[in-house]
UniProtKB/TrEMBL annotation:
This is NAD-dependent protein deacylase. Binds 1 zinc ion per subunit. Its cofactor is Zn(2+). Belongs to the sirtuin family. Class III subfamily. NAD-dependent lysine deacetylase and desuccinylase that specifically removes acetyl and succinyl groups on target proteins. Modulates the activities of several proteins which are inactive in their acylated form. Its main location: cytoplasm.
Length: 230
């Protein structure tokens, strides 16, 4: 019985209309993406960073899951073994597509985090500098997303799953961001079969035993059907 670990990246949400952080040359309002996705950028200009995440949060609320999200939810429901779904995405499209267990290693757009006491809560539609924490009242609320230079969430749980998996799939990932880009090697060391499903080869495509290329809405449902023996 396969113990499956799936990693998803921005490519699975693209067909839902969710753009990537590095779209349009990696610029946003003539600013490098690092200016809106690092602790240093937030310290320099919290108003600009909040404006960026307010826009992203509103965009995420307007899009819908696609056939790839729905296929992975079906796999979680119907596969007799364990299916651990890990995403680098900060949208909620996996949940909207029917998945009830998703590990958000880079946080969630819908979440807020207090930089003073680490309290977490559901973010309002718009946040601004000085927004108070509902737990300690400190004016240090920030988006609950993992920025460059910060440690991703749930790493112990993820590595535990990788250490026992028999099948690992990376879907819509660039293979450029670590530690996620190294998951395929962890799965390989555990003896798992590894597959990359992507629109085009990732930076670590040579680490995979199997590759499938094409739009996620076509490749992912077909792969899920095969895994489920259909």
């Amino acid at each position: 019985m396969d113990n499956i670990v799936i990693l998803t990246g921005a490519g699975i949400s693209t067909e839902s209309g969710m753009g990537t952080f590095r779209g349009a040359g990696g610029l946003w309002e003539n600013r490098r993406v690092e200016d809106v996705a690092t602790p240093e950028g937030f310290a320099r200009d919290p108003e600009m960073v909040h404006r960026f995440y307010n826009m992203r949060r509103q965009k995420a609320a307007s899009v819908r899951p696609n056939a790839a999200h729905e296929a992975l939810a079906r796999l979680q429901r119907e596969h007799p073994g364990k299916v651990t779904l890990v995403t680098q995405n900060v949208d909620a499209l996996h949940e909207a597509g029917g998945s009830d267990s998703v590990i958000h290693m880079h946080g969630r757009l819908a979440g807020a985090l207090c930089a003073a006491c680490d309290h977490r809560w559901e973010a309002p539609d718009e946040m601004h500098p000085g927004f108070p924490c509902p737990a300690c009242a400190a004016p240090h609320a920030r988006p609950d997303v993992v920025w460059f230079g910060e440690m991703p969430y749930h790493m112990e749980e993820i590595f535990d799953a990788l250490s026992t998996c028999t099948l690992f799939a990376a879907i819509g990932t660039s293979g450029q961001v670590y530690p996620a880009a190294g998951f395929v090697q962890e799965a390989f060391r555990a003896g798992a079969h590894t597959v990359e499903i992507n629109l085009e080869p990732s930076a670590v495509v040579s680490d995979f035993a199997e590759t499938r290329f094409g739009p996620a809405t076509q490749t992912v449902p077909a792969w899920v059907d095969e895994v489920l023996g259909r």
